[in-house]
Fold:
Amino acid sequence: MELAPTLWRTCRVLAGPTRLQLLAQIFRRPDRTVSELAEAVGISHSRASQELRRLQSRGLLKADRRGRWVRYSPVADPRVPSAKPLVRAMQAALASRSPHAEGDCLRIASALTHPRRLRVVQVLLHGPRKFSDLAVATDIPGISLARHLRYLRVRELITNEDKRHRLIADPHPLARCLMVLLKTSRDAVR
Structure:
């Protein structure tokens, strides 16, 4: 049975700073227990467990129970079609150990934490659009559309030049992955 978590909810999970820190720890050293991960990130065992379950619910981690210990690895759930490319993208993004790696992931993931913003990006993947054309194509009321466009501009995913909104070509692995998922999936916005 295929699981189909929505992309915007997956982005919401990826937009959590603590979850990103845990994910980065797992990429650096897989097969760690909840206690080890909690200590590495500086949070309680129960909070680490809760945050890890959120990542696992999106298909981004594999949990193996061995006796009384649960160990986590960055293995995509094969029942979640978007999980494998997202795990690869996040691994590439967080592997750099750049001081901006987690911040860049937060910026990109948080930009797409609403189904309407995903719809806007899906439309803009086909080319620049004027505001009025974008409102018709997305079926989003003008006041809401303006708010979502502003949010996408602040997160540096779109720009407005010559009264046309257009996507910014972001080379970040997570941005590239999300654009491919949005381009190839009709159901991504559900």
Notes: The chain has two domains: 7-97, 105-182. The radius of gyration is 18 Å. The first strand starts at residue 32 and ends at 33.
